[in-house]
Input
Amino acid sequence: MPVVQVEGVHKRFGAVEVLKGIDLAVEGGEVVAIIGRSGSGKSTLLRCINGLEQIQSGRIEVSGHSIDPSGRGLRELRKDVGIVFQSYNLFPHLRVGENIMLAPRIVLGVSKSEARSRAEETLAEVGLAERFDAWPDNLSGGQQQRVAIARSLAMRPKVMLFDEVTSALDPELTGEVLATMERLARHGMTMLLVTHEMGFARRVATTTVFMHQGKVWEMGPSERIFGAPETPELRQFLGGGLK
Amino acid sequence: MIRQFTQSEFLFILASARWTLLLTLMSMLLGGLLGFLVALARTSRLAPLRTLAAGWIGVIQGVPVLMLLFLSYYGLALAGFDLPPLIAATVSMALYASGFLGEIWRGSIQAVPWQQWEASSALAFSRPQQYRYVILPQAVRIAIPPTVGFLVQLVKNTSIVSIIGVVELARAGNLVNNATFQPFKVFGTVAAIYFVICWPISLLARRLEGRLHARRAG
Ligand SMILES: Nc1ncnc2c1ncn2[C@@H]1O[C@H](COP(=O)(O)OP(=O)(O)OP(=O)(O)O)[C@@H](O)[C@H]1O
Ligand SMILES: [Mg+2]
Output
């Protein structure tokens, strides 16, 4: 059974329909990249998957928890879905370690020592083991973003969503965050990521989804999507993106 | 018979400052409690609560404290509640404080970036957990300077309750001046006592603010 299953999802903002019937399934261990023009609904889709946006119709299921338009069962679902945004949104009043320990402590109710070991473990995973006691403000953007990833990982999610997590970063900092994500993928994390880094998508993602005008326009193995795009829209998008 | 402004007059004025302090303390505590609820209601997800809190703030801020005072003293007396002046004074000052603190704290809560709500929602925090662990700790920092500013105003504004006969600092000065006709000495003394109360509060605020900053930069 897929970890993430999206069926016939429609999402409107007022009168504007942003998602026009999305179907998508992500299997365990799969890395799915979502590409597409600005405004095609990529962020909205990710936000619907962990219930930050309510859907008007359709169904979303993540590892057995489902969200329907009523929005019930959201918190249970969110425990299994990590999401990282373009802006890192660390809690500025807490040190790095405390940022990571907070949600496992109060949401999952794990013991303090367990939360601490999770924080140490995930910080090591993102290559920041020695910054446990640092204040977020004193870290570079790339480091803050890696802490945000660690903070999500400490919840032991079944799937991680990434929404253009490197878009606010300088090129050299982008590299360290992408390397972190690549390592996560190698370790078997199920991932769904919106990205403008086409090289990264092609290399790391097993499947790539091209969204266009609120629909899944084309989808397939990344090699095929990038190597032999079928629709003129995707061809144009890739041509424009690569020039 | 004109009395002199002697040590005993001075001590009388000084002693009356306890009522000023008590009144400030009580109205800050009660008003703060109510004001906190008003701020929470004002930022609630339930529209009727928001409207109610907005109405409360609007009314309290739109009415002179003097009217609150008269309403709680004479109004409640007419309604059959014969409140001692000090109680009526506390009630009216607390209501006054609740309106202003509610508004100050609403602003502080809303000054926390919305991404902090989003990040904590995404981590499956419940709404109370978001307030307790993420939003309020950040709002408190933002709230400290305006809250202390209001506290200083509150100390000075308690002088208004002298109108219903509470002998606090200002009223005591008035009484002594009527007996001695030495307004410069008397009101100079009263002013100095107000200053001695308010100055350390402002200092403390600056210290607190500095500390919170230092902790973040640490
Ligand atoms: N909260 C909102 N209210 C109204 N409209 C919104 C809202 N969020 C997104 N939209 C609209 O929905 C459409 C899709 O937005 P979305 O952010 O999902 O696009 P995107 O594919 O992520 O684009 P980008 O590459 O620029 O991030 C856009 O037209 C946007 O203006
Ligand atoms: Mg987007």
Remarks:
- DSSP finds eight helices and no strands in chain B.
- Chain B touches chain A at residues 113, 115-116, 118-126, 129, 133-134, 137-138, 141, 216-218 (CB under 8 Å).
- Residues 98 and 188 of chain B are 31 Å apart (CA to CA).
